[in-house]
Write a sequence for this structure.
């Protein structure tokens, strides 16, 4: 895909299926060696975060707005069954058809069934992370249906054979020159320049044909409104608006957590979303539709409500807050880990801090157990989250779940971290033991300490530290020894 | 005023000079310092690595050990954050109500060093002298968990001779993150390199902080690179005087 950057197979073709993706530290390696990709990610996150910070700073009631958004999401989750029932009833009354899918398999089967009834060989798509979550496009391809993305970033990835690396800006890791190369090659436009206007014009004529000829569309949902049975999506480009205007059939795939109680709740949710996601006071296009309306827009409308692990998350007190997420991506833009690695290292369509807590829960812990550790727990994500998800708290809780599970396996008994943690616990149980351990550590590290008093190289796990940093050797006297000598009794 | 110093396990072992500086500083401010040798660790390492049972044992020890202390002073913001943010969850998870009550009465008496100086003692000018160019690194826990805000700067502002160099991207993590620095050593190093670009751009002689964990990370890299800068805990700057430089 990359015409300018160094070729790296795994960086260019990451595996975003947590069941087979490599562990985070291994997946991060090729990215860290890809200077072009890191520059693209750092630049893009800087720009978005800068805009977001300016727009949040100008909002004098941001704290109240954030509190309100957080309370609204928490309240909805407390009464999720009730609001979903209400949504189903109102949506059905307005002419929509509501389907319930317990997992990805069911959702894919339902969507395929609808497409078969429509006799669809092609389908156009509004950007939806949920469809990526259930790997819908490859599934449809296997069944002879071509899914065409219409979001500009998704087109870049689809044509270039890439994978999304961000929930709001999926092609954030691709720069303008790379977009030009992809379009020139796949659209047969060898003279195309990297001028943004030319690039969007190329995408426009590519898209126009789709909009005019493909009568079936798939969307996600930013919000499902229980009170009206309506759906809301927000976007920047207008492709969603086109998909909602021309096709005769619309299928909306949405996670069950996307519901909000009342129409007026959009007042709060749209304000926090636009500012957090793209650093805009208001997103350019907000589309709302309720069931079907004669003579206006799609005449057949289906909603597929996807569980896929969500109700299990709802049952856990600490983890439940994960479902408050409105997919704004602000946590990614601010995350110092994401800013180094971009999204692909997370091996999931949901990267960054929210992905590190969401993916392990959606995919059963064992498929994504390095993700809760892919964080320095710096807390920047919690600070910017417009619905106040305490991501570090959830990360720590998930780490405890991983540990609880792993420590039962014998293989882990002599793992240096597990061994070390058990020994440390025994040592920390008494001041006298701790004192002895300090002396033992001094003896143990003596051989590694150079004449300048520093350790430049350690074996085993310690070598992971000395790979890039020195370590000062242990001082001759611990603090407690000094205290005992100078101040004791 | 009596204060009990919880030095923390890694300061005790790796950075005793920080503890000695806290004692010298508090002595000078007329605080009676005590040290309870039964103290060990706050449990942060266990908790953040997923060992909750073990972390609870350390939490319980801490609460019991300082039940009768007038004030507990801790020269490490991440350990204070552990106590404030994680102890309640650990204790309530085990449904230990009597311990929770003990913890609730102890918590208001637990202070990070700069909080103790400014909030409890009400001093900003501690009479320090440190004739060097210094930059301040805000550790993530100090910044976002404890909300130390302007406190460190107010203390540094009154240090005679000290020239404060402001650090760009103050809110960005140095990449240490405890076991993160070895489990994800490569990503941690990449974060450190980014941080060091800002730190070195200050042209300061010293990089200071209220957390020796970040300083061990940054200092280890500065030493590896033969950089013209070293790290120093803020307690050592505040303890320095014309008579006795750190």
């Amino acid at each position: 895909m990359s015409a300018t950057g160094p070729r790296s197979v795994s960086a260019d073709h990451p595996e975003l299926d947590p069941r087979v993706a490599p562990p985070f530290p291994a997946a991060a390696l090729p990215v860290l060696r890809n200077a072009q990709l890191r520059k693209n990610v750092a630049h893009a996150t800087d720009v978005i975060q800068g805009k977001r910070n300016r727009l949040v700073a100008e909002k004098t009631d941001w704290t109240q707005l954030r509190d309100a958004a957080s309370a609204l999401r928490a309240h909805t989750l407390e009464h999720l069954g009730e609001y979903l029932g209400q949504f189903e009833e109102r949506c059905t009354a307005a002419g929509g058809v509501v389907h319930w899918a317990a997992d990805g398999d069911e959702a894919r089967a339902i969507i395929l069934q609808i497409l078969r009834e429509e006799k669809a060989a092609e389908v156009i798509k509004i950007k939806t992370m949920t469809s990526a979550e259930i790997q819908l496009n490859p599934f449809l391809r296997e069944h002879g249906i071509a899914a065409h993305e219409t979001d500009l970033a998704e087109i870049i990835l689809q044509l270039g054979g890439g994978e999304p690396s961000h929930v709001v800006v999926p092609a954030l890791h691709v720069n303008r020159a790379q977009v030009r190369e992809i379009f020139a090659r796949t659209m047969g436009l060898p003279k195309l320049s990297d001028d943004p206007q030319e690039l969007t014009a190329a995408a426009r004529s590519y898209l126009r044909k789709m909009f005019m000829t493909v009568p079936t569309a798939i969307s996600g949902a930013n919000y499902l409104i229980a009170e009206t049975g309506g759906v809301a999506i927000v976007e920047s480009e207008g492709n969603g608006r086109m998909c909602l205007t021309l096709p005769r059939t619309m299928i909306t795939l949405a996670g069950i957590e996307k519901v909000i109680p009342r129409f007026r709740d959009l007042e709060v949710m749209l304000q926090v979303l636009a500012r957090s996601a793209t650093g805009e006071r208001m997103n350019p296009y907000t589309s709302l539709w309720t069931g079907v309306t004669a003579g206006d827009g799609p005449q057949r409308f289906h909603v597929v409500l996807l569980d896929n692990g969500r109700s299990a998350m709802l049952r856990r007190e600490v983890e439940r807050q994960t479902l408050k997420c409105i997919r704004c991506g602000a946590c990614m833009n601010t995350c110092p880990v994401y800013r180094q690695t971009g999204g692909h290292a997370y091996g999931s369509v949901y990267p960054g801090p929210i992905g590190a807590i969401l993916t392990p829960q959606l995919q059963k812990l064992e498929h994504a157990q390095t993700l809760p550790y892919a964080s320095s727990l710096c807390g920047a994500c919690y600070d910017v989250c417009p619905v106040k998800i305490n991501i570090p708290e959830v990360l720590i809780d998930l780490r405890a779940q991983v540990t609880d599970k792993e420590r039962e396996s014998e293989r882990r008994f002599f793992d240096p971290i597990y061994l070390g943690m058990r020994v440390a616990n025994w040592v920390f149980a008494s001041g006298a033991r701790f004192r002895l351990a300090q002396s033992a550590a001094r003896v143990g590290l003596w051989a590694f300490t150079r004449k300048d008093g520093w350790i430049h190289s350690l074996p085993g796990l310690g070598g992971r530290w000395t790979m890039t940093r020195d370590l000062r050797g242990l001082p001759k006297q611990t603090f407690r020894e000094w205290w005992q000598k100078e101040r004791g009794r | 005023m009596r204060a009990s110093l919880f030095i923390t396990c890694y300061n005790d072992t790796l950075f005793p000079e920080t503890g000695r500086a806290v004692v010298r500083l508090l002595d000078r401010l007329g605080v009676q310092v005590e040290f309870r040798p039964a103290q060990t660790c706050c449990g942060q390492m266990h908790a953040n690595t997923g060992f909750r049972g073990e972390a609870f044992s350390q939490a319980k020890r801490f609460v019991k050990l300082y039940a009768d202390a007038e004030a507990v002073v801790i020269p490490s913001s991440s350990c204070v954050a552990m106590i404030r943010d994680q102890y309640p969850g650990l204790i309530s998870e085990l449904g230990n109500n009597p311990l929770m009550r003990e913890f609730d009465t102890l918590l208001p008496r637990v202070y990070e060093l700069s909080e103790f100086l400014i909030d409890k003692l009400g001093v900003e000018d501690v009479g320090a002298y440190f004739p060097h160019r210094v930059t301040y690194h805000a550790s993530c826990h100090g910044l976002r968990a404890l909300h130390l805000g302007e406190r460190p700067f107010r203390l540094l502002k009154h240090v005679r001779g000290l020239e404060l160099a402001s650090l760009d991207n103050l809110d960005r993590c140095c990449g240490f993150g405890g076991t993160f620095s070895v489990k994800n050593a490569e990503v941690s190093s990449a974060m450190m390199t980014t941080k060091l670009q800002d730190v070195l751009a200050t042209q300061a002689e010293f990089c200071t902080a209220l957390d020796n964990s970040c300083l061990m990370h940054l200092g280890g890299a500065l030493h590896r690179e033969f950089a013209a800068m070293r790290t120093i805990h803020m307690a050592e700057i505040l303890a320095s005087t014309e008579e006795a430089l750190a």
Notes: The radius of gyration of chain A is 26 Å. Chain A touches chain B through 67 residues (CB under 8 Å). DSSP finds 23 helices and twelve strands in chain A.
